[in-house]
Amino acid sequence: MIYNTLSRTKETFEPINPPFVGMYVCGPTVYGDPHLGHARPAITFDLVFRYLKHLGFRVRYVRNITDVGHLENDQDEGEDKIAKKARLEQLEPMEIAQYYSDRYFQFMEALNVERPSIEPRASGHIIEQIQMIRDILDAGFAYEMNGSVYFDVVKYNENFHYGKLSGRVLDDLITNTRTLEGQDEKRNFVDFALWKKAQPEHIMRWPSPWSDGFPGWHLECSTMSKKYLGDHFDIHGGGLDLLFPHHESEIAQSRIANGSDAVKYWVHNNMITINGQKMGKSLNNFITLDEFFTGKNPALAQAYSPMTIRFFILQAQYRSTLDFSNEALQAAEKGLKKLLSSYETLGKLVPSVTNHSVVQSLEKSCYDAMNDDFNSPILIANLFEGVRIINSVNDGKEMINAADLELLKALYKTFVFEILGLKDEKQEQDSLVGGLMTTILSIRQRAKENKDFATSDEIRNALQELKITVKDTKDGPVWST
Ligand code: ZN
User: Fold this and answer.
1) What pLDDT, on the 0 to 100 scale, is given for residue 74?
2) Domains, the chain, ranges and CATH?
3) Are strands 322-324 and 277-278 parallel, antiparallel or unpaired?
4) What's the 123 CA to ligand 1 centre distance in angstroms?
5) 301-335 pLDDT, tens per residue?
6) Residues by chain with Cβ below 5 Å of ion ligand 1
7) Dihedral of CA 350/351/357/360: which sign?
8) Coil, strand or helix: which one is 25?
9) What is the pTM of this model?
């Protein structure tokens, strides 16, 4: 079952063209360092991606990069966000976009988020966006005004329902919104830009039939999802903050350009709050992922590893809000350690002939949890039942036979590592250091055998500086710190 924001119910997941699944998720706008708010959608849809693949679906996962520089308040007004940063740092806007997309990829890799199948950039799809604007103009649902093109929301709403995803009613939107100055160009306040004529100071601009300018933000997702997933695809995801107006407007654009609704299942992850408060620019309470990993932020009691952040996010069902606090992250750190160290214990358990364990029903409960709208906290609770069994067998209080022991190991491999995407960072680091040391010591050994004492001394001195001591024993060199 998958919860569909559009129907507001859980629906049986039936792809349009099985075993293929098309999934589009709104990706980052690249003008700032990735923060905790970026981690949640990335990890949520990574979980969906991993699980659907595990079930045997062939998933084409598309996540865009918004690099065309949109306006600050998303209301077709204000300064271009990327250009503002570029002006402040005296860089070419594309340098900003490149720098922050590289940072984004680097941090997502640390969080063990798999790369989507396609990561298209809005700036690489200007031609397609211009074509979609033409299609919408031809259909009569957009109008040109002074070199800009706007989507005619009022006309759309006469034929379809603008607001069906978020449950809004257009009349209420119009009465509740005061017209702001500088927006007289639009026929109605609710209309949104498909193409915006660039002001002289605007740096990121492209030629179009209407003006030198840039595409509206909503348009890139309609265009790129159509290009890579077709007119009709399975899952469209994103954060709940994108529901309105972004996704609502995407629905309207795609409906007109394609002649039918594009998306079968709309999926939205909820927000992360910080000590009960919404994260936001005005509150200035963003904590970047870099700050989490290094601990360099006054709000943080310590550094938190990428896997702690990942586990913390997965401990909540994606549709619930998740509140950050040091206590919550410390609890996540402890829980993760417990889960991973029990896997080590599991490797040492000895099977018995008799069996009292309930591993088979545990496997079913794990699948039931994931099949119920990707309920990762219930899955984790079931895995902790596995931890209980492991410790109990280890303490001699319970017995487990060889078949169940193997099943339990398989359960960890599938659910902990493959689907939840958790990994033992310490063990990974240990094995990395171990591997490097073996290589270094074998080079030193060879140097000694070749009487190249300059090299072997250099290695010994370098290791000494790192406080690593090497002892030569009859079985070869042994190192310690
Ligand atoms: Zn989008």
Assistant:
1) 45
2) 2-269 (3.40.50.620), 277-419 (1.10.730), 425-480 (no CATH)
3) unpaired
4) 14
5) 999 999 999 999 999 999 999 999 999 999 999 99
6) 26, 221
7) positive
8) strand
9) 0.88
